[in-house]
Amino acid sequence: MELLVVIVLLGILVTLGLTSFRGSQGKSRDSRRKSELRQIALALEIYVNDKGKYPNDDGAGRIMGCAPDDVSLCNWNTEFKDKNGTIYMVTLPADPGGLSYYYDVLGATNGSYQLYTRLENTLDSDVTKDVSGNPEAYSGLSCGAKLCNYGIASTNTTAGAGRMKISE
Known about the structure:
Largest sheet: 3 strands, antiparallel
Order of helices and strands: HEEEEEEEEEE
Mean pLDDT: 89
Strand order of the largest sheet: 1-2-3
């Protein structure tokens, strides 16, 4: 009987430990996502200083500004380099959890951009919330298999400007 009690207690402790561990892994990936979006934003600012405009997007959330002609697709996890050989990022990061980042250039003159991702921890203070405090996502912006719920933007606009938000 004592052995059974010990086994049950160990099972409960292992379950609690695994749950906590999985939550901390998601928060770690979210932290990495935010950091990588800031790094991409810095590369885009250097790009706009060189070219006078932000690179185009392909309509599916990817950057169109790579070599050999400055209008080719820049794939995630590859080099972000222009036709002159200027390297803006050694590796354009990809989402650490198997989803994807979403890049959206705004305006006819490519004067601003927005970058989005999907945070796993919907309780994160940076996830947009509706008036009732429920997490929201950006309608129509797919960060892989799920809608994006976190964004940053160039300094002359805000993330989600012109985008409808929906409760999750």
